[in-house]
Amino acid sequence: MVHFSKGTKALALAAGVALAAGCASNDSVKKAQSTADEALRTAQAAQSAAQAAKSSADAASAKADAAQACCNDVQSKLDRVFERSQRK
Fold it and tell me: In this model, does residue 5 exceed pLDDT 80?
């Protein structure tokens, strides 16, 4: 008598169930493809939105850098005016 391990028995049972269930129907394959296509469109839209947000953030960062440079320039001018007033 041949003894099978538990793993072999489970594999044989799973194979039997798979054979009994049969292959996926054409409709279920089409539905899965439709779902995958929709997921791809959603991901592409999200990527596009993220790129637009990055562009906006980059523009805001550039404006902030320009404002900081202006602020630094004004601060330097005020410092010079204050130093001149202290010398008099």
Answer: no
